[in-house]
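testing teh design pipeline on a random one, pls ignore if ur not involved
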């Protein structure tokens, strides 16, 4: 499903840039291929994006995560209209725009990750134990990436970032609460102080993200 999300986001981004259907398909990751993609090659993207929008975002396994993104972006009406095929891709460009593409990607993946975690909790035995650990680590790494990539961003971008934190993980809730208030290297280090392994990881990697 994660690769499906990457494919959907890539196809939307290409569609917004008016790329041809064949060029869009050439960028698809085979690991995230789904049946509806086959119809894209026969679509006329020069006249309408509604068919593409519906094929990718309504009739696919990741469609519900996109609906949640629209709703969380403050457009319940857009989500409702999209569900009934009433909006073209161009009509929701104010939400799904070039500047919002990574926000959308992270929002979709947050929804998927939380669903995956909930499913794992319904299992038992070694599978639950191992997968819970893996998913908690993945959730924590996503939080850390979001934090370090937005340290120099404006207040609105930082607020957008906070909405993308998964609601589970080894950092959750104390660590994530501390990181919500972090705005520079010093405050990030303070928030990670109780989590020595993550603090050490941050110290090793921060030179790639934090200006010295």
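output:
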């Amino acid at each position: 499903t994660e690769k499906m999300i990457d494919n959907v986001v890539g196809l939307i981004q290409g569609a917004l840039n008016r790329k041809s259907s064949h060029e869009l398909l050439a960028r698809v990751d085979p690991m995230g291929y789904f049946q509806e993609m086959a119809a894209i090659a026969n679509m006329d993207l020069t006249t309408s994006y509604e068919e593409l929008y519906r094929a990718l975002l309504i009739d696919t396994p990741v469609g519900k995560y996109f609906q949640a993104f629209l709703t969380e972006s403050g457009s319940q009406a857009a989500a409702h209209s999209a569900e009934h095929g009433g909006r073209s891709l161009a009509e929701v460009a104010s939400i799904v725009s070039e500047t919002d593409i990574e926000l959308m990607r992270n929002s979709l993946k947050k929804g998927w990750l939380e669903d995956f975690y909930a499913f794992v909790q319904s299992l038992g035995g070694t599978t639950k134990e191992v997968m819970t650990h893996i998913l908690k680590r993945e959730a924590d790494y996503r939080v850390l990436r979001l934090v370090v990539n937005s340290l120099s961003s404006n207040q609105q971008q930082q607020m957008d970032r906070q909405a993308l934190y998964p609601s589970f993980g080894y950092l959750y809730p104390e660590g994530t609460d501390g990181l919500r208030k972090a705005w520079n290297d010093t405050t990030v280090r303070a928030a990670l102080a109780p989590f020595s392994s993550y603090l050490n990881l941050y110290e090793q990697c921060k030179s790639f993200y934090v200006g010295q």
